[in-house]
Design a protein that fits this description.
Elements lengths: L2 H15 L3 H4 L5 E3 L4 E5 L2 E7 L7 E9 L14 E12 L2 E7 L3 E2 L6 H7 L5 E6 L2 E2 L5 E5 L1 H5 L10 H6 L2 E4 L5 E7 L3 E12 L10 E12 L18 E6 L8 E6 L1 E2 L6 H5 L10 E5 L5 H12 L1 H7 L6 E4 L18 E6 L6 E2 L2 E3 L5 E10 L2 H13 L13 H19 L20 H7 L30 H11 L12 H9 L27 H22 L1 H4 L3 H22 L5 E3 L11 E3 L2 H16 L8 H7 L4 H16 L2 H13 L6 H12 L11 H19 L7 H20 L6 H18 L2
Parallel strand pairs: 7-15, 17-23, 18-19, 18-20, 20-23
Antiparallel strand pairs: 1-2, 2-3, 3-10, 4-5, 4-14, 5-6, 6-8, 9-10, 11-13, 12-13, 13-14, 15-16, 21-23, 22-23, 24-25
Length: about 775
């Protein structure tokens, strides 16, 4: 055979071995057309990827569709998001690579530094596919995705590493794992996987040594024309995305933050710019879970629709709404997991909670989809809190069978709160501090303004109102801050081309209201005016009113519970929660001690950003705590309750709340902040003076022959051990804190030695001797 004949024969043989499109897409192949064509041949799935979509950015969202009981301890449920990542399908030689793209570091691709950013942020390849063939006009490639979705690929797994460790997961069992369905839609592809893992410690059904999960993978094409982002400003509360931009001409890379918000664009720009209310091109629509009990559906819908009026402040009408999902007859393709649809899921779980997560474009912060989650048992928490916090002044709360309309109103406001999160708004704990405490006893004021300036605060109930106050609103509602924040984040400005162009206007909106506490945003950290669950601008007064009400409730608790049910289960539950409520009221006052107010400002605004709480307020707060927390609260030790609910544990339970307050005051970070405050503020409550006052109050019995009861003995022992731990703390030893702790223990030792010589009962004498031994061990180890 001649050489050229042999070459031609070899080429012909190779060509005959190359598979054709018809080898994969046959007469009996099931094809679903959409973003990609998805072909199914028995148990094999192929993606037909248009070449025009290669290198296009897509968002891959991994969710749990169905799960075993107790996975994640009750806070993971059907619909929970496990992972969100930007991916691209990239051609390389005769392969298609699935790569994860990060926006943590960016640069303008026209600048030289872009090459360095790319070189130092190499995108990981999570899977490589052989190109099986091309379609008939060579505009698309075919790849087999069966192994990607039927094996345990960690990058897209629905079982994170911490679950694998907790439940001692060994491996995925391929014989019990498979692809359920893959469906393609115009903008997205939805994959459902059924996985069974071998696990030595599964969360439920332990005898099976198995965790079976149904996972949903949503892949959606990111917008070709990204939404113009809005620059984040910490003076207005918004969730945000952040990246490091190396395009900056400054001497360092810029950290850029953009708020997370939905893309609302008016149908009629001229009318919108003229100040008219205009419908958005694409409104925000939530679909209710069909599993939602019928009697609750209207309240959930109201909780969503309540935001319509708020969006009118930003110039949009009918911007948000809730609907029941289409029936199977109306839309057989509809799925709650389809990333094109936002939902409110009703989860059969004993967890008492609700959440409002969302999925956003990491390039711009545009919210693409949201799934609000309501846990079935959550209303029980609200019923209990309603009884405990408002029962003294609110007759309709004095029952285990709260009226349906009032329960519905609570649910409506919880849903409104979670919708707020899904719109981009975080908690604003400073909003409850905007209203004067006395105004919360005014019916006209509370009916108009609610009990906090925003629904995004944890100000659930009006516990300040007293018996005899008339026409009081007890349940939270949306407030003026919500209108302000939505307008700031969503109102569109005319003739704006870049995020930087609108900053001056956005600044003006903030600074025009900067002196009004109603429009202040505050995060819950060290600021006593931004505490969770508090209401009113005077913590001492608010907590005093709250405890007055709790004392009334405590006396009536048996009559409102066990006498109606003929068992003690609700009495036990509510008594435990009553202690928690009392502990929260105490914590609000304790927050003043070593507290620092935070007033977020720009340099163009007057005043300091950080202002320590005044000495007088701190001293008054400590005196209040001695009276209402550290002294034995006999009203909480009700024999008519305690001897009905448990055989023991009373002293430990009450003591744990006292210790929590005391431990918070003596926390290293708080004490360090107290020492630092002495530097920036004259006439500050000196740390030495504060701890000395704390010691004198906690050991008030020591100056006479007064015996010490069991609650005080336990508290005094905790105080000594807390100071001892501060002496031995490595961080405390590098500051004045260790010296102060040593000094206070030395003073206390002298006082105890004198007191132990007085006439005391046996247990008090033993107690003082024990404390002296502990102190000696610390001072002279």
């Amino acid at each position: 055979m001649l050489k050229n004949q042999k070459t031609a024969t070899t080429a012909t043989a190779k060509k005959s071995k190359q598979k054709k499109y018809s080898d994969f897409v046959k007469k009996d192949t099931k094809t679903d057309d959409g973003l990609f064509k998805v072909h199914e041949n028995k148990n094999t799935f192929l993606y037909e990827i248009p070449k025009k979509l290669l290198n296009k950015e897509m968002l891959l969202v991994t969710r749990i569709k169905e799960l075993p009981a107790d996975l994640g301890g009750g806070y993971v449920n059907a619909g929970s998001k496990v992972n969100t990542q930007v991916i691209v399908w990239e051609s390389f030689k005769n392969k298609i690579l699935l790569k994860v793209k990060s926006y943590n570091a960016i640069a303008n691709d026209s600048l030289p530094i872009y090459k360095s950013v790319t070189a130092n942020n190499l995108e990981p390849v999570i899977y490589a596919f052989d190109v099986e063939t091309q379609n008939q006009d060579s505009t698309a490639v075919l790849i087999d995705v069966t192994k990607l979705f039927s094996t345990d690929v960690k990058a897209i797994s629905g079982l994170p590493s911490y679950f694998r460790s907790t439940y001692k997961v060994r491996k995925l069992d391929p014989s019990r794992s498979f692809i359920n369905t893959i469906k393609s839609y115009p903008e997205n592809i939805e994959v459902i996987q059924d996985f069974s893992f071998d696990a030595d410690a599964p969360p439920s059904n332990t005898s099976t040594n198995t965790i079976t999960m149904r996972i949903n993978q949503s892949m959606i094409l990111l917008p070709e024309n990204p939404m113009m982002p809005r620059v984040h400003d910490k003076r207005v509360g918004y969730f945000s995305i952040e990246n490091t931009d190396y395009s900056s001409e400054a001497l360092k890379a810029d950290n850029k933050r953009y708020i997370r918000r939905w893309r609302l664009e008016p149908k009629d720009w001229n009318a919108y710019n003229n100040g008219e209310l205009v419908e958005p091109v694409k409104p925000i629509v939530y679909y209710l879970d069909p599993a939602t009990p019928k009697k609750l559906r209207k309240y959930i819908q109201q909780g969503v629709n309540d935001w319509q009026k708020v969006f009118e402040t930003a110039g949009f009408k009918n911007a948000i709404m809730a609907k029941m999902p289409p029936t199977a007859e109306e839309d057989p393709e509809f799925s709650m997991e389809d990333i094109r649809y936002s939902s409110i899921r009703y989860v059969a779980s004993t967890t008492r909670n609700a959440t409002g997560p969302s999925v956003s474009d990491p390039r711009t912060g545009e919210i693409l989809e949201s799934d609000i989650i309501w846990y079935h048992n959550h209303l029980r928490s609200y019923r209990n809190r309603y009884l405990l916090e408002t029962g003294a002044a609110n007759p309709s709360a004095r029952t285990l069978d709260t009226p349906d309309e009032e329960i519905g109103e609570m649910m409506r406001m919880v849903i409104a709160h979670e919708v707020g999160h899904a719109l981009g708004l975080p908690h604003n704990m400073a909003a409850s501090f905007a209203y004067d405490t006395e105004d919360l006893r005014n019916g006209e004021f509370t009916q108009k303004n609610g009990i906090a300036a925003t629904i995004m605060d944890y100000a659930r109930y009006n516990y300040v109102a007293q018996p005899g106050d008339k026409n009081i609103r007890f349940i939270r509602q949306l407030g003026p801050y919500d209108h302000y924040a939505i307008n700031w984040g969503y109102r569109l400005l005319p003739n704006i081309k870049t995020p930087q162009e609108e900053i001056a206007t956005l600044d003006n909106w903030i600074e025009a209201r900067a002196d009004n506490p109603i429009y202040r945003f505050g995060g819950q950290r060290f600021d006593p005016s931004a505490q969770t669950e508090g209401i009113g601008n005077n913590q001492i007064k608010s907590s005093t009113y709250g405890i007055k009400n709790l004392k009334i409730v405590a006396k009536n608790l048996p009559n409102w519970t066990s006498s109606k049910t003929n068992n003690y289960e609700d009495l036990e539950e509510l008594y435990g929660e009553l202690l928690s409520v009392w502990g929260r009221y105490a914590g609000h006052v304790a927050g003043n001690i070593s507290g620092v107010y935070e007033f977020n400002k720009k340099p163009t605004q007057q005043g300091n950003v950080y202002v320590p709480v005044s000495k007088v307020k701190q001293q008054t707060s400590l005196n209040w705590l001695h009276k209402n927390v550290f002294e034995t609260q006999t009203w909480l030790i009700d024999k008519n309750i305690l001897n009905k609910i448990n055989e023991s544990g009373y002293t430990d339970k009450l003591g744990s709340y006292q210790n929590r307050v005391l431990g918070g005051i003596l926390n290293y970070k708080n004490l360090k902040r107290s020492i630092d405050a002495e530097v920036i503020q004259t006439n500050n409550y000196a740390t030495t003076e504060m701890i000395s006052d704390l010691r004198k109050g906690i050991f008030s019995e020591i100056n006479g022959s007064k015996n010490v009861d069991v609650f005080r003995r336990n508290l005094q022992k905790y105080f000594v051990r807390k100071l001892a731990s501060l002496m031995n703390d490595k961080l405390a030893s590098t500051s004045d804190i260790s010296a102060i702790a040593r000094g206070e223990l030395t003073v206390l030792k002298d006082n105890l030695q004198r007191a132990s010589k007085r006439k005391l009962n046996k247990i008090t004498a033993y107690h003082y001797k024990d404390l002296l031994e502990i102190i000696d061990t610390v001072l002279e180890p």
